[in-house]
């Protein structure tokens, strides 16, 4: 495993991190989830990402259980706040002071830790003044409940405004968590250059495009049983837009490129995101330990210029790169 600094901070994180979105508490049973966390630890992964909304708080509980007995100082634990949780009442969502201060306490209790290394705003909240949100995050840091703060899927204007307040409040805003993969590159034109300027790293999710970049989904073929695409608890909704014959045919053309680099297709996809020096860590998941181990082996892999060019040629116009799509990820009104 190799390590990178998170933003303009002294905190190092593992290049490959383990996240439990969709899987823990829904797609994967607790014993299988614990086996995946153990595989991550065995592979040298020290950074773990979750959120209170995943499986409506169950994912945090499962991760907390799985990490018990590990030296806390040797781990970097990330979680997030914004989406509706619990009974989903009128204050059980968003980035109000009330919801943030109550949510961090719930997350710490479920994760069985006194603090998280990174506390992230899961989306931008258009219904709460940004000053209120940032002051609440600053208080969480000063109370010792989080060491650093981050955001997820924020636009460049939102990042600049948050950074200005973070400097004023003297709290470390160090990261943004966007979707990023060979097939989805919307952050490259605007978010990445702005983040470099502000000292913010990307903590990227879906580097394998929900499993599509592994090549296991074949054009015209039946969906593999037990795969993300057949998950009725939500996983299928996130992947269906990628399951077109055009995209899947182009993905199959990546196989010889991976072979030439001595990598599996999943490793090629994860390694590709890490060629971007603004990416601090790529969040990978897995429903089986062997998937976790395979993904982790992408750490430290440097792809040749020829391979990078061949990837672009193979995927062609299947790549999504519209910078304006980031603005569409945060709901304009709260989801309750």
TrEMBL record:
Alphabetical list of Pfam families matching this protein: Aldo_ket_red
Domain of life: Bacteria
CDD domains in UniProt: Aldo_ket_red_shaker-like
Gene Ontology MF term list: oxidoreductase activity
Residues of the NADP-dependent oxidoreductase domain: 15-314
KW Oxidoreductase (keyword) present: yes
Keywords: NADP, Oxidoreductase
UniProt cross-references to SUPFAM superfamilies, sorted A to Z: NAD(P)-linked oxidoreductase (SSF51430)
GO cellular component, one term: cytosol
Similarity annotation: Belongs to the shaker potassium channel beta subunit family.
Protein name: Aryl-alcohol dehydrogenase-like predicted oxidoreductase
């Amino acid at each position: 495993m190799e390590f990178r600094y998170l933003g303009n901070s002294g905190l190092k994180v593992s290049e490959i991190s383990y996240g439990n979105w969709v899987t823990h508490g829904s797609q994967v049973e607790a014993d299988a989830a614990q086996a995946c966390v153990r595989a991550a630890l065995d592979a040298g992964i020290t950074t773990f990402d979750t959120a209170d909304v995943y499986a409506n708080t169950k994912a945090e509980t499962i991760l907390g259980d799985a990490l018990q007995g590990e030296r806390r100082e040797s781990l970097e634990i990330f979680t997030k706040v914004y989406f509706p949780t619990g009974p989903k009442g009128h204050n059980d969502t968003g980035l109000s002071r009330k919801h943030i201060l109550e949510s961090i306490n719930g997350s710490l209790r479920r994760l069985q830790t006194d603090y998280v290394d990174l506390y992230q705003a899961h989306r931008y909240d258009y219904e709460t003044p940004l000053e209120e949100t940032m002051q609440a995050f600053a208080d969480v840091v000063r109370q010792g409940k989080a060491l650093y703060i981050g955001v997820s899927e924020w636009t460049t204007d939102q990042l600049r405004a948050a950074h200005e307040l973070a400097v004023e409040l003297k709290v470390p805003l160090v990261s943004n968590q966007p979707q990023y993969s060979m097939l989805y590159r919307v952050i490259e034109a605007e978010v990445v250059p702005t983040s470099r300027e502000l000292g913010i790293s990307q903590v990227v999710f879906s580097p394998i495009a929900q499993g599509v970049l592994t090549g296991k989904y074949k054009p015209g073929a039946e969906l593999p049983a037990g795969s993300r695409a057949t998950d009725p608890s939500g996983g299928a909704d996130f992947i269906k837009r990628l399951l077109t014959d055009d995209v899947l045919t182009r993905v199959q053309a990546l196989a010889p490129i991976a072979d030439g680099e001595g990598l599996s297709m999943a490793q090629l996809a994860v390694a590709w995101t890490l060629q971007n020096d603004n990416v601090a860590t790529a969040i990978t998941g897995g429903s089986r330990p062997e998937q976790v181990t395979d993904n982790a082996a992408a750490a430290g892999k440097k792809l040749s210029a020829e391979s990078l060019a061949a990837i672009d040629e193979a995927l062609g116009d299947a790549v999504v790169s519209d910078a304006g799509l980031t603005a569409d990820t945060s709901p304009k009104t709260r989801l309750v």
